[in-house]
Amino acid sequence: MAKQVITSDQLYPVYGPYSHAVRVGNMIFLHGTVGFDPQGRLPGETPGRADMVQQCEQTIANMTTALQLLGGSLQDVVKVRAFLPQHCRPARPGQQSFDETFDEVYGRHFQPPRPARAALQQDLFQEDLLVEIEAIAVVNEPKHLIVSDALPPLRRPYAQGGILVGNLLFLRGFTSQDQHGDLVGRGDMRAQTAQTFANMAITLQEAGGSLADLVQTHVTLTDWRHAHQEYNEVYNRHVQAPFPTNTTFQGGLGREGLLIEIESIAALATPRLTIDSAFTQVGQASRQRQPDIVHSDKLNPQFAHVHGVRVGDLMFVGGHASIDAQGRLVGPGDIRAQTRHVLTTIETILTLAGLGLDDVVKTTVMLTDWRHYATYNEVYRAFFAAPYPARSTVGGSLGMPGALIEIDAIAMAGARETAIVATSL
Questions:
Q1: What is the pTM of this model?
Q2: Sign (positive/negative) of CA torsion 269, 270, 276, 279?
């Protein structure tokens, strides 16, 4: 049995080796959807001027079409990550900002209980693109909204704490706001990271879990100078074994003064298989060998996160740059060599968990230079066969000096045989 492909002339042409959406079982993974119409044109009333309202409307219409092709709807969406390259900037003086416009359109289409959401400032592959949205949906399953008076008050159209579906909790992108909505720790990365984790812990507790249930974290930092010092210090104090995977990007956040945002997924009271390095980080005590942890000498040591976590059929692979098992950069200045090494590493992690690249349903890619887009796609095609996974590619900087690319992935057991893929003609 092979993957089933559904094509539609209502979806815009793809610009690389990816599909619009992939469904396995009751889960649907949408690629980073943008506002092109089926002919590949950006909508807008004024020629030469990007139109945020029309792009948002078209982007959400494209998401709706892809979901419907796979038997879902916007009401099935449980997690959203939006990329807004101009974020808080107004279209013209005196007008509302792009993210305020985005919230207005988004709120009309996503009705309560709204998905967990993060909205981040990253560069997109075309200059006049104003929004890109990736999403996860769960079809035909009850969804429970997690709320608490101890969490920051809800002032925007997304879940206050998160959405619980079965044993999976999708947490929104949390920042350092307190229960009154005030910013905690202005200019202080340690204080902001601690408050962010406090909000995550409250949400997990309301759902019957704890920080130990985290299986994936995605961290956005506004300044890499904090990444390996204050932020890591607090992260390592809050996240204990069994560790989750982690991806850390640099990007902009939607409020002045914010230094960090963390979005995450937890699997409550669920056995897991962890893929970790056989080596320990410098200054770290040797990790205890356990039957549910697979150690490999092909992987570089991490500190408070691991390379992969499998819970049931679902597999999370953390963000990987081109780093060898000794922590050295592979392929300096060479996007082909770096992309090849990253994808080989991801393939190794999947194999250790009993999966393969054909089981990947979604990838998220950070490029430091859009001039590398075509070359990275060449290498990517050599690893993934059509129909391709859903994918998002955004631009920004990475924490490893000299790194040109970072990729994380989600896979599902059996996707190579049972996935249904939606794409354009």
A1: 0.96
A2: positive
